[in-house]
Amino acid sequence: MIKDLFEQIEKNINNDKNKFNILLRFGHAENMYPFMTALGLFKDKLPLQSDNYQAHLTRNFKSGFLTPFTANVAFILHKCENTEETDESIFNRFKISILVNELPVSMIKNAGELMCSKGNQNKKLQMCNYLDLKIQLKRYLNLDFDKVCINNNLDKLEKGEL
């Protein structure tokens, strides 16, 4: 999901003729949890364990809140017109704000702060420089699916044996 997100945003930035107003991708809770975790959201200081459950009753990462029945994470791409024309990269002109379940991250109790928004002056709508967000998520952008997800039954599936 992360790789596709950046590929589509960069196609949009580089191609003025085919700009999109909205880009939608859908997934299950099992997609949303790692996605929100990669963004650094809802992070607790200590891991939840069987011996410290009572201390975590007010924890940040609560699955019932994050994906109560359905969930969404929205990325809004902002083009900043007041940037220097001498910027080395066109990507320096873009910022991204992120919403979880239609709320800006900054408005969600216990969401935490986007790692890429440190020093952002607008506390109501946390924004990341596009390149800072890409750097934060770079380890997810070059994953080789076949190396990470080994399926021992793939040969049998391809032969129709499963």
Our Rg estimate from Cα atoms comes to 19 Å
Share of helix among residues?
25-40%
> Strand percentage, roughly?
5-15%
| Total discrete domains | 1
The coarse overall form would be globular
Number of helices: 7
Low-pLDDT residue intervals, each spanning 5 or more residues: none
The average pLDDT is 77
From the structure provided, what is the oligomeric state, counting identical versus distinct chains?
Answer: single chain
Q: Measure the end-to-end span.
A: 28 Å
Structural class based on helices, strands and sheet pairing: alpha+beta
How do the helices and strands follow one another from N- to C-terminus? HHHEEEEHHHH
| Count of strand segments | 4
Question: Largest sheet, described in full?
Answer: 4 strands, antiparallel
Structural account:
With 162 residues, this protein is of the alpha+beta class. The chain has one domain. The protein is 29% helix and 12% strand. The model has no long low-confidence stretch (mean pLDDT 77).
